[in-house]
DNA sequence: GCAGATGCACAACCAATGGTTGTGGCTCGC
DNA sequence: GCGAGCCACAACCATTGGTTGTGCATCTGC
């Protein structure tokens, strides 16, 4: 089925005349007539009743019309989404079930009129994200560069929001029945976070965490996927992992895993947003404002060093070192 | 743009290989390759990066994907909406801003997964609606046949819900400042309801209303459209009209018109639903149940005679005659 | 390192499509 | 009853969109 035929159908239905639709679409009246006829032949129904003063929708035509409108609108949005120098807001996230994507989805649900495309760069290198922002391939990226000095001049990184960390353990783990945990209680327990690329923002985060709280964080080993990780956790009496409290991985219920918040201090993973310094996409403003409306974290919150480097004075945060 | 090309794009993106998408769609791999290439040429962007093990979405491809899914789903819904012997529920209403359509819209908003098409037969004759239900062109019709004996055997009419009547007047009308009105107070005031076809259900309703309460209801004259009616009402000191309280005509605010409920008795316009006696559309059940959840009318409610004919004993209602 | 398998792209070919111009038939209004 | 307006049909032609056959690149297994 041709979307231009559907567009002709919609306009003809709205204008009541094939002639007017043809004028508007820049083709001859005969072309529109043929398009409609082809639609009718393909669908096996009559869409219009022809009168002397134009056309009028049949019942089938009325039933089709809203769906045809949907299709045409979808095509238009699709075109807008990939138009070079697009005005559709395009944001890069690390994954579709991360806290970043969840918060974006929450925003979109409360502002469903927002034209927003969520994409994922298939490379883990934050420099690729910076380059993509620079090139205009994406309007913003939920990534962190741990060395802000490495940022080019025309790109900046701002703090988006913090994601508190929780411990994820199986039922046989000695900490499984705790309501909350402090970082000190995690000492000597093995924490496994597989699939962390060296020098990635996650590697830096876990490195600092291990150093500051004397933890056993084991980032070695390839990531065989979440299914495998969950299976291992569920069966193990001594392996745990860390997850963000806002992450919405669909933990299979039959694994009987537990999420235990970590407090005193809360361990905050800071989410940053990389965006162009000049002329950022106008839709970004409202999304950044939305971050401020998220529940704030307690005063006793630990953050990695690169999140505590003051960018503006009023944004400076305490750096906790136990 | 071809919707089959978009469908190929969606499946190829989901399956990661043009070959698999081609198998599924029943065409050759080359055809899918060509479709994607055409899409890319038309859109001016690259949608996939080709790898040795298949294809992977580019950023532009990721941005397009959800919209392409929308389009494909819209096409599928459109096809379902007009399939002969369709399983998409199709209901006929008298107009899109009538109480019938408003109640249907309310139902749909609370059950957005319902596939529902709302159409309007362009003829005012209820017999045409009966015939359309009989022929299966529509699954149900919000119409009334005032003589139930005229219904064919394989079609039945049930009571849907009642729509209370309100008086609509301009600011200079003597009744303009009333909070509520009784039918007796309307006596000797001119009530103008233009565009009522003789022997239609509305004509019957106003006839009985005029007789039972001794009202001056003037149904003569053509209907020049709501705009004209509203203009006349707004300017006139002696013309009023009747509207249903659930009707949602967008009354222009600058007309300063007033809606005044009529009570003691409430004047109920009964909405009926005509549907096949055998094998009604399965989606109808939930909608009919929905009617029961609407706010009930007070005990002192007037209804036209044809709405008080007992259909089943428990559905019998009092017939008020002042 | 090499052979085979796998997966996408290009070429050649052909039926079908979708646009054009020209024309005819129908209904409405004067 | 005649002209205006609108849609459908016919003839024509460039383009499309499918096919089969083939080529090229990459990954896999020995």
Summarize the topology.
Two copies of one chain form a homodimer.
Chain A: H1 3-15, H2 18-25, H3 29-43, E1 48-51, E2 54-57, H4 59-82, E3 89-92, H5 99-110, E4 116-119, H6 126-135, E5 140-141, E6 155-169, H7 183-186, E7 190-192, H8 201-213, E8 216-218, H9 226-235, E9 239-244, E10 258-261, E11 266-276, H10 284-292, E12 301-302, H11 305-308
Parallel strand pairs in A: 3-4, 3-5, 7-8, 7-9, 11-12
Antiparallel strand pairs in A: 1-2, 6-9, 6-10, 6-11
Helix pairs in contact in A: 1-2, 1-3, 1-4, 2-3
The structure holds a DNA duplex (30 and 30 nucleotides).
What are the key terms here?
homodimer, 322 residues, Arc Repressor Mutant, subunit A, D-Maltodextrin-Binding Protein, domain 2, 3 domains, elongated, disordered C terminus
Summarize the structure.
2 copies of one chain form a homodimer. The first copy, chain A, has 322 residues and is an alpha/beta fold.
Beta-sheet strand percentage of chain A? 15-25%
Could you estimate the helical fraction of the residues of chain A in percent?
Answer: 25-40%
Overall pLDDT metric of chain A: 83
Q: Between the first and last Cα atoms of chain A, what is the distance in angstroms?
A: 66 Å
Classify the secondary structure makeup of chain A into a structural class: alpha/beta
Low-confidence runs of chain A: 310-322
Broad shape of chain A: elongated
CATH C-level class of the largest domain in chain A is Alpha Beta
Element string of chain A (H = helix, E = strand)? HHHEEHEHEHEEHEHEHEEEHEH
Q: How many helices of chain A?
A: 11
Q: Largest sheet of chain A, if any?
A: 7 strands, mixed
Query: CATH topology of the largest domain in chain A, which one?
Result: D-Maltodextrin-Binding Protein, domain 2
Largest interface: A-B, 38 and 38 residues
Total number of beta strands of chain A? 12
- Quaternary state of this entry equals homodimer
Instruction: Please identify, by name, the CATH architecture of the largest domain in chain A.
Output: 3-Layer(aba) Sandwich
Determine Rg of chain A (CA atoms, Å).
27 Å
Counted up, domains of chain A total 3
């Amino acid at each position: 089925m041709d979307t231009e035929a559907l567009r002709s159908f919609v306009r003809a239905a709205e204008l009541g005349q094939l002639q007017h639709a043809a004028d508007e679409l820049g083709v001859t009246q005969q072309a529109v007539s043929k398009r409609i006829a082809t639609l009718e032949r393909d669908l096996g129904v009559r869409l219009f009743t022809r009168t002397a003063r134009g056309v009028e929708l049949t019942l089938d035509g009325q039933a089709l019309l809203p769906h045809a409108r949907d299709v045409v609108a979808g095509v238009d949005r699709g075109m807008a989404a990939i138009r070079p120098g697009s005005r559709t807001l395009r944001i890069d996230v690390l994954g579709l079930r991360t806290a970043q994507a969840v918060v974006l989805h929450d925003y979109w649900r409360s502002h469903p009129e927002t034209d927003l495309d969520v994409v994922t760069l298939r490379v883990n290198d934050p420099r690729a994200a910076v380059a993509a922002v620079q090139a205009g391939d994406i309007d913003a990226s939920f990534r962190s560069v741990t060395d802000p000095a490495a940022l080019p001049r025309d790109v900046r990184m701002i703090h988006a929001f913090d994601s508190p960390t929780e411990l994820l353990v199986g039922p046989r783990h000695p900490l499984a029945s705790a309501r909350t945990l402090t970082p000190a209680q995690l000492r000597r327990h093995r924490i496994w976070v597989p699939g962390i690329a060296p020098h990635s923002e996650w590697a830096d985060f876990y490195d600092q965490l291990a150093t500051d709280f004397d933890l056993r964080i084991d980032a070695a080993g390839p990531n065989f996927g979440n299914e495998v990780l969950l299976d291992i956790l569920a069966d193990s009496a001594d392996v745990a992992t860390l997850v963000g409290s806002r992450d919405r991985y669909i933990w299979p219920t039959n694994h009987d895993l537990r999420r235990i918040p970590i407090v005193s201090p809360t361990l905050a993973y800071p989410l940053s947003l990389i965006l162009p310094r000049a002329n950022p996409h106008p839709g970004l403003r409202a999304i950044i404002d939305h971050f401020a409306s998220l529940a704030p974290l307690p005063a006793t919150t630990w953050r990695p060093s690169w999140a505590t480097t003051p960018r503006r004075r009023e944004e400076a945060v305490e750096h906790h070192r136990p």
